Structure formats: structure tokens, C-alpha cells
Fold:
Amino acid sequence: MKRLLLSVTIACSCILAAHSQNNSGKPREIEVYKAKEIEPYKPAPAPVVKKDATAGNGTSKVADISFFIKKWKTGVTDAFYVVDNGAAGKTMVVNVNARTKPLHINSDGSYYWEAYGEQRKGRWEKTGKSDYPVVLKNAIQNRDWYVGQHNNGKNAIFIWDHDATSYTGVPL
Structure:
């Protein structure tokens, strides 16, 4: 037992001696940890088809608007929204690969769309851009939603709020 006690004493003395040599007898200053600044996620613009973005003379060629004039079956993945049930309270609806009600883009410059429990009628305008040639003004969530041809190369659209939310649509 004396040997064990002597061994522990010697080991502690060695550690203490090494520690005091490293610090020169001065207390060591604690370094403040600086974390990496967290930045909000900014998604890249949604992928769209840019078919022949320039005309032969080098000017911008906007997609044919008639492609967008129809009824579209729209959907969004992993959607949730709150429905106000009046006096009964509010209900949160959660859907995986949620289908929303159709988006109607009419030739007279109007649209009708139901999504996230909202019903919106409004006006759409041409943007003059080849990637998102149509904008639905003051649509769902009081935002302008940009409509472009989906990059799958088929008869589909991509609807984007210029932030983090997007929908896809196929003809109804």
C-alpha cells in the first residue's frame, strides 16, 4: 500500500511540475470561443427551361405566354398551413406531397388559385423575362408568385415566391 501511495504521489508531483513549467507559474487565460455566424438559408432560383433565350438579332425572346393560359393542378411537398375555424379555433393541416386546388391562369389577365387554405383571385402580368414570364400579383400569402416552365422539359410549370416556397403544376 505504501508503494502505491508513493507511486501516486510521484505521478502527481510530475504532473504538477510539468503544468507549472508550461504556465510559468501564471494563470492561463481562457480563450473565448467564437462560433461561426449562422446565416439564413437563401435558396438558388428555381430551375426552369430557357428555350432559345435570344432571338436571331440578339434581343431577348420571352417564352410564349399561351403555354401558361390554362388550368393547372398544383402541389407542394411537405406542406402545412393553419385554417381559421372561427369560434371553434384554428386547425393546423399537415400534408406530405400536398395537392393544392387548381391554379387558373386566364387569357384576360386574371387568375384564381387556392393554396394554404387561402382563395385568391387577382391579376397576372408578363414579366418580360424568359425564365419566369408570368407573375401572379398579390397571390397566396400576399406575395407575388413567379411562373415559369418546369425544367423537366414536359408540359409542367414551376411557381416560385422568390424566397423558399415553390409549387409545381401540370395541366388539369
